[in-house]
Predict the 3D structure of the following.
Amino acid sequence: MTDTGDPAVDGLDAAFAETVRRTGASVGALYLLSPDEQVLRLDVLCGAPAELAEPWARVPVSAPAPVAEAVREERMVWVGTQSDLARSYPRTAVALPYPLALAATPVTGVRRWGALLLMWPATRPPYMTGREQGNIMSSCRRLARLLEEAAESGRRPADAGRPRVLPVGSGRRDAGPAMAAADFVERLPGGSCGLDLEGRFTYLSSGACALLGREAGELLGTLPWQSLRWLDEPTYEDRYRAAVLSREPVSFTACRPPGQWLEFHLYPDASGISVRIVPSGAQALPVSAPRQVVSAAAPSRMGQLYQLTHLAAALTEVVGVQDVIDLVADQIMPAFGAQGLVLSTADAGRLRITGYRGYSPGTIERLDGLPLDTGFTPAGRALSSGIPAFFADPEDMRRIYPEAPHISGKQAWAFLPLIISGRPVGICVLSYEQPHDFPAAERAVLTSLAGLIAQALDRARLYDMKHDLAHGLQQALLPRTLPAITGLRVAARYLPATRGMDIGGDFYDLIRLDDVAAAAVIGDVQGHNVAAAALMGQVRIGVHAHATLGTPPDRVLAETNRLLTDLGPDLFTSCLYARLDFADRHVTLASAGHPPPLLRLPGSAARPLDLPPGPLLGIDPDADFPVTRIPLVPGMMLAFYTDGLIESPGVDLEDSMNQLAGELGRADDSDLDALVDTLLRTSGTAGKRTDDVALLVLQYTGGR
């Protein structure tokens, strides 16, 4: 283990490496949450080079990935086979297209710290025993304690930008040629050459040098596909990646010019790869071999192609404009080594900057709002022509745009127009702090990526417009504030569904009837879309109109029900109405198929109220709604809620209601807003929600 000089880092690294070794994993990765807890950053890696981890070095907590799900749901995520990975986590399967098994486990102590990812070759059983789970979870608790101790002493490992890569197995960080040769001899009866996990030559026998046509001194420390241009073909690098990540033997055939075919057999383990090279006896081209040798003038990196595929898959899943900005900044910028980003959209004849990284606010203010045909920067010409512009150094740009290089202080730029069916959507600018050549292959990849960004950005803008419309409609239909009523303490929340348009049919209201009475209502219109929200507004207005006339609870529901059956909306509505009479101190309730409220009396446990329901609104115009009457006792609390708060897959509704009642009974009622937050948090509605949630809590103080 390498000594970094920081006790916090060294202790964490030692515990992490021991966990990887003890579990028999071939690859281990420790992710730590960013300060805002929105992104998981790869902090320590073991068993694979950092380059291979680029597509998954930063994982948003909201992403459909095993490590993110482990953190969100605070549970171990086990994936036993590659087919399971492709079925459950298709984006992760794109980045890891190899036979393997993996486990992602949250690293949690006093607080959430991140997640531990362990990967095994597909040769291990596709299941995990209880003992294995216990050992891994125990190791994660130990990692959490080390992080907490480091944080308490102000020595929490800092984000260094790139993950620390630790050795596995032998514990040697850099194996010299002699040790690499010894490893190779142990793995194979004969010798050819050895590669480290980064893919570099660490040992070559004289026979290998003869077959490859180069001296050992020319090849040691180099990557085969860079020092041997006839191996510069994506298929060959992919075979190396497969050996590293699957830890299984891999073979392929390649042609050394002018016509000698060689067989390469790769034998990987935790310390590197032994490669046996033998002449091929076949004269015809093997089926698995490429039919043409790739020209050295057009190199293509398999890793970059995998990354492009991964980014393309990620772009199909983004939702809003901010998601597009974050994806470009967090994954596309690092993938191409860029240090700056400006993403602009075409709006009313001008380029409006919607997101940026690596620029000062003053620079962005100067660039924001340029006309679409601006000649100040290359953005205008690139957008009007639809042709990307690449500038390798400031002098290259200064010849055409003399003022542009001075604005940002960058040294190289790629201006990528975002065009959809001939229509300009905007422009994406990647910039570099050092001069940067843009080879033909990289330009082609960036140009292709610009088309994907354009499609994603256009969809995201449309989604944001719909979301803003839906959100405005929702806010207009729900009460902005609840009236202050003497003798009542009140708190309420509405949480939209996290899928769809973030809008729904759940509603609540508190109505002042007169000086000695008030009404509370909660309801749930089927669905969570614009139609549901619109019907919710009609129901709420109908209930409010009848309630203010002093109508009894059963008649309020009956009249509202008749209104809905006349409208024929094809959507059904549940509703619970309660009238609180402060003069004679009683509460009268009626329900239209709605979950019963929770009742908490002073000195007693909370429980669901025994309330016989009537039918849902909008079904039977002549339906009756039974009435229930209970005493209004000082200190009593009533909690009204919609089914989104209690519905969970595989859990009985009655059990969920009793569990919620238990939480209400234990909660501190000194602050009702804090109590509502506690109920929402403990009911599991803080993460993804397939339904919207409304919660209204009342406490009668008896101050009348």
